[in-house]
């Protein structure tokens, strides 16, 4: 389809306000956090949109998807693009469907909130708090959109208690399929999993209902330890406190040195941070002190807890990598070895620096290390595997989990392979 014809048809749907064609706008809509990987950064750009479309209503989004399907135009949906490593990049150009104008919070009920895909997670949390409730889970990047978090993320603050997004957080979804007419389908319960953490290859989430719970009184507790092993053991103990903390994180001294300056993050010491329910703060403090640590700060209130959330998950690695662009990489790692053998994991890789989180049913985190070239990553994977450490290679832009399941779903919901093409590994990036 000639680009000028495509643009004219899209303008008829969304108007001039809903179209971006400048090179700068198309470049902004064609990047995510791939640059966090020195390997992927060396391969950028991985794709460039031909046009960015910003629908103001679900009806406009549906019409734009129907147009793309009718003419075989690649289509990549995105929210803020804050947390993916190439999965949000339009590898084959075409349309980037920016859903950030679909931001209406439609309803707040008992135990659930309904919103369009472009609503920011922080806004949902604030709206829920107006009704004495809170989200089960929200991502460490609280500016992320609901649709982006559900399609591209999986866990965050609250995961200790509630697991990931595929463990009951999502009540229902409204999804656009890439079949004739772009039907809007409503799915509930387990059927939602077809579209969660699928990077938009099975359908485009435009509206969701997610779970709330009664609001809690959260307190941010900061502690430091001279020894990393003492910090990780305290992490395990703090994660077992009940009512469950909303977040428990540890960073070694090497990562702490790269974090934003804060008197609660003394240099040269490992940092333990806990978002604790106020009634458990004394117990958490006792765990810290009995484990050889020092309580650095206790900060009450939602805002303090939110600030601590911004130092969780991949954020510490982001700060570290930013301090030395192109010279540090990180790998996701899993298991109780992170608590029991932190020094060994650190020492296994040149420049090893460790971040650890308490999860729902297992411990996870990231090992950060010095980067020379691609062999730094492949060698690290081999070394960690030999140590019995479970790993995930996050330096790939294609889907590497539930591949056969998602490919099977996509054959039904996107038979032309138009949705976020290039994210299934194989002889052809658009292979179904």
From TrEMBL:
<dbReference type="GO" id="GO:1903457">
    <property type="term" value="P:lactate catabolic process"/>
</dbReference>
<dbReference type="InterPro" id="IPR036318">
    <property type="entry name" value="FAD-bd_PCMH-like_sf"/>
</dbReference>
<dbReference type="GO" id="GO:0008720">
    <property type="term" value="F:D-lactate dehydrogenase (NAD+) activity"/>
</dbReference>
<dbReference type="InterPro" id="IPR006094">
    <property type="entry name" value="Oxid_FAD_bind_N"/>
</dbReference>
<feature type="domain" description="FAD-binding PCMH-type">
    <location>
        <begin position="45"/>
        <end position="215"/>
    </location>
</feature>
<dbReference type="InterPro" id="IPR016166">
    <property type="entry name" value="FAD-bd_PCMH"/>
</dbReference>
<dbReference type="GO" id="GO:0071949">
    <property type="term" value="F:FAD binding"/>
</dbReference>
<dbReference type="Pfam" id="PF01565">
    <property type="entry name" value="FAD_binding_4"/>
</dbReference>
<dbReference type="GO" id="GO:0004458">
    <property type="term" value="F:D-lactate dehydrogenase (cytochrome) activity"/>
</dbReference>
<dbReference type="InterPro" id="IPR016169">
    <property type="entry name" value="FAD-bd_PCMH_sub2"/>
</dbReference>
<protein>
    <recommendedName>
        <fullName>FAD-binding PCMH-type domain-containing protein</fullName>
    </recommendedName>
</protein>
């Amino acid at each position: 389809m000639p680009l000028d014809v495509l643009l004219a048809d899209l303008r008829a749907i969304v108007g001039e306000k809903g179209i971006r064609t400048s090179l700068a706008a198309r470049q902004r809509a064609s990047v995510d956090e791939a640059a966090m990987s020195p390997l992927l950064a060396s391969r950028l750009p991985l794709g460039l949109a031909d046009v960015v479309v910003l629908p103001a209503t679900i009806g406009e989004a549906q019409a734009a998807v129907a147009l793309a399907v009718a003419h075989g135009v690649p289509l990549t949906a995105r929210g803020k693009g804050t947390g993916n490593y190439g999965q949000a990049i339009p590898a084959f150009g075409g349309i980037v469907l920016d859903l950030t104008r679909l931001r209406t919070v439609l309803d707040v009920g008992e135990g659930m909130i309904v919103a369009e895909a472009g609503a920011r997670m922080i806004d949902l949390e604030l709206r829920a708090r107006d009704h004495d409730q809170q989200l089960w889970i929200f991502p460490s990047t609280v500016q992320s959109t609901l649709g982006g978090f559900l399609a591209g993320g999986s866990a965050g603050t609250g995961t200790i208690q509630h697991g990931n997004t595929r463990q009951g957080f999502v009540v229902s979804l409204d999804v656009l399929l890439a079949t004739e007419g772009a039907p809007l389908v409503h799915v509930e319960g387990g059927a939602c999993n077809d579209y969660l953490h699928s990077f938009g290859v099975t359908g485009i989430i435009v509206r969701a209902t997610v779970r709330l719970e009664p609001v809690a009184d959260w307190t941010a507790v900061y502690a430091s330890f001279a020894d990393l092993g003492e910090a990780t053991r305290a992490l395990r103990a703090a994660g077992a406190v009940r009512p469950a903390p909303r977040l428990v994180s540890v960073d070694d001294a090497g990562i702490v040195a790269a974090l934003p300056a804060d008197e609660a993050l003394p240099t040269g010491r490992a940092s333990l941070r806990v978002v604790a329910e106020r009634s458990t703060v004394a117990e958490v403090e006792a765990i810290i002190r009995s484990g050889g640590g020092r309580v650095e700060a206790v900060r009450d209130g939602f805002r303090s807890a939110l600030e601590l959330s911004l130092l969780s998950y991949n954020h510490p690695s982001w700060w570290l990598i930013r301090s030395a662009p192109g010279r540090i990489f990180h790998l996701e790692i899993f298991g109780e070895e992170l608590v029991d053998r932190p020094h060994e994991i650190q020492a296994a890789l040149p420049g090893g620096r460790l971040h650890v989180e308490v999860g729902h049913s297992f411990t996870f985190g990231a090992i950060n290390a010095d980067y020379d070239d691609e062999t730094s990553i492949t060698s690290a994977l081999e070394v960690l595997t030999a140590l019995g450490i479970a790993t995930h290679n996050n330096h790939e832009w294609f889907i590497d989990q539930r591949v056969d399941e998602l490919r099977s779903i996509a054959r039904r919901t996107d038979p032309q392979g138009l949705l976020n093409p290039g994210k299934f590994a194989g002889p052809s990036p658009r292979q179904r």
